[in-house]
Amino acid sequence: MSKLRVGLLGVGMMGRHHARVIREVEGVELVAIADPGGDPHGVGGDLGVLPDIESLIGAGIDMAVVAVPTRFHEDAALKLAAAGVHTLVEKPIAHTLEAGQRMVDAFASAGLVGAVGHVERFNPALQEMRRRLEAGELGEVYQIATRRQGPFPARIADVGVAKDLASHDIDLTSWVAQSEYTTVFAQTAYKSGREHEDMITISGRLASGIVVNNIVNWLSPMKERLTVVTGERGAFVADTSTGDLTFYANGTIPLEWESVSSFRGVSEGDITRYSFAKREPLRVEHEAFRDAVLGKPSDVVTMEQGQRTLAVVEAGVASSREGQSVSL
């Protein structure tokens, strides 16, 4: 069976990783790269670098990955859809909801796979957590809280922290819970002198009744990537920066040491850090995209899901501006 021909638009900080992974995935072949800005990281190799999306399409590709700044997603995606090319765009899906919906509609009407690169969903810690939740190991889920903070990345200039980082947490929260956001209340801050927000806190509720909280910023010297899911039997803690998953069981043994009891609580349970295979999330994402194109079962993040995530992000920004909760 011949390999699927893949084209890559954009070889910047994220695009260079896409180039490496595409070359490693079975069943696909990177045949063309395009970037109007050239090849700053030298990933083109024998392929060289084409100047624009039209040249990329002209190379005769089956699939494409779009890893250019968000404001350029719509133009590239619509041209790829018109050319009959299955496409994965980096998150967020687009710079506006209107642009995102045009992308969703274009790929749906063409019968093509349209996907969004919410790569955190493919993190091994979250994948393992999702499997254990599905198996009922936590019982009923009460709350999901995420913390994603660290220093400002100079490479991000066209969007704020809500679209760039909070979109990760919104997508993974809905996916882990298998439930959509129904209400959000958010607050933002602008501390670095940029036009876009660099801090956002989102509180909300999912359709299932689960309470959620997402704390995101570009202002912390401490890099943190945590997802905590609390339920009737304890709590799962996923550290997506290391791929570790830990379970804190509800306590059943009373503590008799008074000073420890007052510090830790009235009882404590077992703490388990699981061992499991830890594959690179980006590679798993590309395998899911490949399988979707081949018509196989796949967990690829669809453009419809990416659009829903963008809607929650926009609702959060609107909530912070208006000072009241927003229903979705």
Automatic annotation (TrEMBL):
Segments forming domain GFO/IDH/MocA-like oxidoreductase? 127-236
At the highest ranks, the source species' classification is: Bacteria, Bacillati, Actinomycetota, Actinomycetes, Micrococcales
Kindly give the SUPFAM superfamilies that the UniProt entry links to this protein.
Answer: Glyceraldehyde-3-phosphate dehydrogenase-like, C-terminal domain (SSF55347), NAD(P)-binding Rossmann-fold domains (SSF51735)
Q: Which UniProt keywords apply?
A: NAD
Domain (Gfo/Idh/MocA-like oxidoreductase N-terminal): residue spans on this chain: 4-118
Q: This chain belongs to which protein, by name?
A: Dehydrogenase
What PANTHER family does the database record attribute to this sequence? Answer: BILIVERDIN REDUCTASE A
Gene3D superfamilies reported for this sequence: Dihydrodipicolinate Reductase, domain 2, NAD(P)-binding Rossmann-like Domain
Query: A Gene Ontology MF term for this entry?
Result: nucleotide binding
